[in-house]
Design brief:
isomerase; Alpha-D-Glucose-1,6-Bisphosphate, Chain A, domain 3; Phosphomannomutase; A-D-PHexomutase_C
Length: 454
């Protein structure tokens, strides 16, 4: 009976419960299918700290080698470390991780050589079809000359590359608390930070894919409570929190308050524009703050607005030659990192900006955090399309607003905007509101929620 992969092959990756939804037998077929679809004669494979990751990763490597590809196994790594290997070695890559999902989950993030993304429209649908077929007919015939499996540690080279992209020569001594959430930040942070004048206060650096302390998702406020308290207790200059596969980074200031990822996007955009002579395109998704395109223009750059999601950001990065891109989900993309996302490089920019002047982080980011935002509010609805249409109809005849449908519904007025987007996986609508002041933001937020729940 053919495997049903409809529940685990998502828009941009593979993700599901092990062994209930997939296992090493299927991982081996995914390895073979990846080589067949990409026509690769060599690939790189890495994995996170989840208990099932080494076995799944090795099975994938066996399947790839059976079809003739030489496999470079980079072992334990963060997702952006796998992207580094794909870019620096010019190899297609596979990263075994389920990011911040619970311990029983695992997945695969795939890319072509140079860290170019693989999604449903760029090879993932074909990979799924082959795996489903071979799960019935048996694995494809092996190549006449099977590939080799070789181990290679890329951590030092990854760290050196990141450090070469940020001028840290003026960095003053700083105390930084880092919460790795028992994820891969505990593997990468010590090596990246070891040459810097930092007093590092580590939290939950032990690699443990069962996440014994808290979920490794720093965008959920409950998961940064420990970090916020520790920053205050230590009198630290800032705190950093990484997600499970350490490709996202969230920042806490010296007062223990979270810094909006939009403010970090604006700060890094200003620095990247300065590094490029005050010229360049910067990508931002449509739920980032108004401050992002404003700061980009103020520093000589051209802002480009996109849909939410890394595939749209990376496609626009490549099409426009953009130097940087940021999302409100704390994903940060860099031209000099093969257009891929790396939270670690964004963290180094924050350290360089803070350590290059004498003021506290709260003062530094205040010029980039200009408006009142609601954060993302999820509403459960019975009919996403009907609920969205009801909100759209409420504003349709008003002369003081504009409506657009680039990604869900965005309504924009002189003093506020909101975006309402449907979840792809749950019966939810996601609302983000921003206004020039807090009372206006609350009024628009509450009015929109009332329309969703009459």
């Amino acid at each position: 009976m053919a495997a049903d992969l409809s529940q685990i092959v998502k828009a941009y990756d593979v993700r599901g419960v092990v062994p209930d939804q997939w296992d090493e037998t299927l991982a081996e077929l995914f390895g073979a299918a990846f080589v067949r679809v990409t026509d690769a004669d060599a690939i790189a494979v890495g994995h996170d700290m989840r208990p099932s990751s080494p076995g799944l990763s090795r099975a994938f490597a066996r399947g790839a080698a059976a079809l003739g590809a030489d496999v470079t196994e980079i072992g334990l790594c963060s997702t952006d470390q796998l992207y580094y290997a794909s870019g620096a070695l010019n190899l297609p890559g596979a990263m075994f991780t389920a990011s911040h999902n619970p311990a029983q989950y695992n997945g695969i993030k795939l890319c072509r050589a140079g860290a170019a993304p693989v999604g449903q429209d760029t090879g993932l649908a074909e990979i799924r079809a082959l795996v489903e077929k071979w799960s019935t007919t048996g694995a494809p015939a092996p190549a006449a000359s099977p590939g080799t499996l070789t181990s290679r540690d890329t951590l030092q080279d990854y760290a050196a590359h990141l450090l070469s992209l940020v001028d840290l020569s003026a960095l003053r001594p700083l105390k930084v608390v880092v919460d790795a959430g028992n994820g891969m930040g505990g593997h990468t942070v010590p090596t990246v930070f070891e040459s810097l004048p930092l007093t590092l206060v580590p939290m939950y650096f032990e690699l443990d894919g069962t996440f014994p302390n808290h979920e490794a998702n720093p965008l959920d406020p409950k998961n940064i409570v420990d970090l916020q308290a520790r920053v205050l207790a230590e009198g630290a200059d800032l705190g950093l929190a990484f997600d499970g596969d350490a490709d996202r980074c969230f920042v806490v200031d010296e007062r223990g308050r979270g810094v909006s990822p939009s403010a970090i996007t604006a700060l890094v955009a200003a620095r990247e524009l300065a590094r490029n002579g005050g010229r360049g395109t910067v990508i931002h998704n449509l739920i980032t703050s108004w401050s992002v395109p404003e700061v980009v223009r103020e520093h000589g750059g051209t802002p480009v607005r996109t849909r939410v999601g890394h595939s749209f950001i990376k496609a626009e990065m490549a099409a426009s030659g953009a130097i940087f891109g940021g999302e409100h989900s704390a994903h940060y993309y860099f031209k000099d990192f093969w257009n891929a996302d790396t939270g670690m490089l964004a963290a180094l920019h924050v350290l360089a900006a803070l350590g290059g002047q004498e003021g506290p982080l709260s003062a530094l980011v205040s010029s980039y955090d200009r408006y009142a935002g609601s954060g993302e509010i999820n509403s459960t609805v019975t009919d996403q399309a009907a609920s969205t249409a009801a909100v759209s109809a409420f504003y349709a005849d008003r002369d003081d607003v504009t409506l657009d449908h680039l990604d869900g519904l965005t309504v924009t007025a002189a003093d506020w905007w909101f975006n309402l987007r449907a979840s792809n996986t749950e019966p939810l609508l996601r609302l983000n509101v921003e206004a020039r002041d807090e009372p206006t933001m609350r009024q628009i937020r509450d009015q929109t929620l009332t329309l969703l729940h009459p």
